[in-house]
Design goal:
Blueprint (H helix, E strand, L loop, with lengths): L3 H16 L25 E8 L10 E2 L2 E3 L2 E5 L4 E6 L5 E6 L3 E7 L3 E6 L3 E6 L5 E6 L9 E3 L2 E5 L4 E6 L5 E6 L14 E3 L2 E5 L4 E6 L5 E6 L8 H4 L8 E3 L2 E6 L3 E6 L5 E5 L6 E4 L3 E5 L5 E5 L5 E5 L11 E3 L2 E5 L4 E6 L5 E6 L9 E4 L2 E5 L4 E7 L2
Parallel strand pairs: 2-7
Antiparallel strand pairs: 1-33, 3-4, 4-5, 5-6, 7-8, 8-9, 9-10, 11-12, 12-13, 13-14, 15-16, 16-17, 17-18, 19-20, 20-21, 21-22, 23-24, 24-25, 25-26, 27-28, 28-29, 29-30, 31-32, 32-33
Length: 384
């Protein structure tokens, strides 16, 4: 059973990537991408720099995302490259070529950690790129590890969550949540808040564990699969989660969007929809990139729809991020779109490379850092 998720995941990921972004109606996944509309930009986006890191993730299902810490931008690729660039200029600071990276990197000011498709977790000195340690986990790693104090939290693709010592990579604890017979290929990166680790599962649930010892705190189902076949009943939570002011926001494939309390996992609201890439949370609204390419703004407190944009239907959208007064998503052709947070109208567009972004969008200090699936990386800022 533990071997089936990677194999079936490749097939299902291929279905979604070829079709992508479908909604709850799976037949909608075969629709061609909506043509981009002409518009007059209302804000100027400056590309600060661009570069490339290996061959990117391609269609491997690897969860490769930018990590920004200590003035450095870290990137990895499936062909074994891991690099540090100056976050302001894009200048290459160091690089290593090792083995196929599948998840990450995650970074602090002193250390960078990435997982491989062979089930290794490797830590590097953030300043020099020197290898600090490597550890073996139970399966391949295809989401970014998270560094929290003296712990590194790693999600393996067989359903196990590992906590490793940041000092030497030795295991502190491991929890096995298992995997269903069918699931999408991918894992949501964990969230660590204080002494709580939040982990999403391929069975459509979200769980909380104690950071120190892995003790389970609570578990909440985000959705329940419906249908006559395993494929029809398949649900999964692989996309970006968000935590804001003690509330956790989650959206999954065929499992809906939901707001939970960090303390106890109590459901605040839920809404039917489907998302592979996940969501971003702001003070007033939660923004979801739906599987069919629509972008939703939901009231943060009630889950009610504030607006829905359909100008990017079937364009295999990335995770959304918030940048000033805009929500930003990338698409399958390397296009980045800035939508107004107030009404979803298109405000600006820019391009990097020619492939999709997966969950490769990150905002740090009002700068958008991106990595797409052909290895293109870059940084963007709104002109003041």
């Amino acid at each position: 059973m533990l071997m089936r998720k990677p194999i079936l995941g490749v097939l299902l990921a291929s279905m979604l990537l070829a079709a992508c972004s479908g909604s709850s109606s799976k037949k909608e996944n075969i629709e061609p991408p909506t043509e981009l509309m002409e518009f007059t930009p209302v804000v100027t986006v400056d590309k600060l720099w661009s570069s490339s890191v290996g061959d990117g993730a391609g269609f491997t299902g690897a969860g490769l995302v930018p990590a920004i810490a200590g003035g450095r931008a870290f990137f990895a690729s499936v062909d074994g490259d891991i690099v540090a660039l100056d976050a302001a200029s894009g200048k290459r600071l160091w690089g290593n070529s090792l083995e196929s990276f599948g998840g990450g990197p995650g970074a602090s000011e002193s250390m960078v950690v990435a997982g491989t498709l062979n089930g290794a977790v490797i830590a590097f000195d953030a300043q020099t790129g020197a290898e600090l340690w490597r550890a073996k986990v139970s399966s391949e790693v295809i989401s970014a590890p998270v560094i929290s104090g003296d712990s590194v939290i790693v999600i393996a693709n067989d359903g196990r969550t590992h906590a490793l010592k940041a000092s030497d990579g030795s295991q502190i604890w491991a929890v096995d949540r298992g995997v269903p017979m069918l699931s999408l290929r991918g894992n949501a990166a964990p969230i660590v808040s204080g002494n709580v680790v939040i982990v999403a599962s391929a069975n459509g649930s979200v769980s909380a564990f104690n950071l120190a010892d892995g003790r389970p705190l609570w578990e909440q189902r985000v959705g329940v699969g419906e249908g006559r076949t395993d494929l029809e009943r398949m649900i999964d939570v692989d996309g970006r989660m968000a935590l804001l002011n003690g509330d956790l926001f989650v959206a999954g494939y065929e499992s809906g969007a939901q707001a939970l309390t960090l303390d106890g996992g109590r459901t605040l609201w839920s809404r039917e929809m489907s998302s592979v890439a996940g969501l971003a949370a702001g003070t007033e609204a939660v923004f979801v990139a739906a599987t069919d390419g629509s972008v939703w703004a939901l009231d943060r407190r009630s889950g009610g729809a504030l607006w829905k944009s359909e100008i990017l239907l079937h364009r295999m959208l990335s995770n959304p991020v918030l940048m000033g007064d805009f929500v930003v998503v990338g698409d399958l052709e390397g296009q980045l779109h800035w939508l107004k947070r107030g009404d979803g109208e298109i405000a600006a567009r820019s391009k990097l490379g020619g492939a999709g972004f997966g969950e490769g969008l990150v905002i740090v200090d009002d700068v958008l850092y991106v990595q797409n699936q052909d290895g293109s990386v870059g940084a963007f800022r709104l002109r003041q």
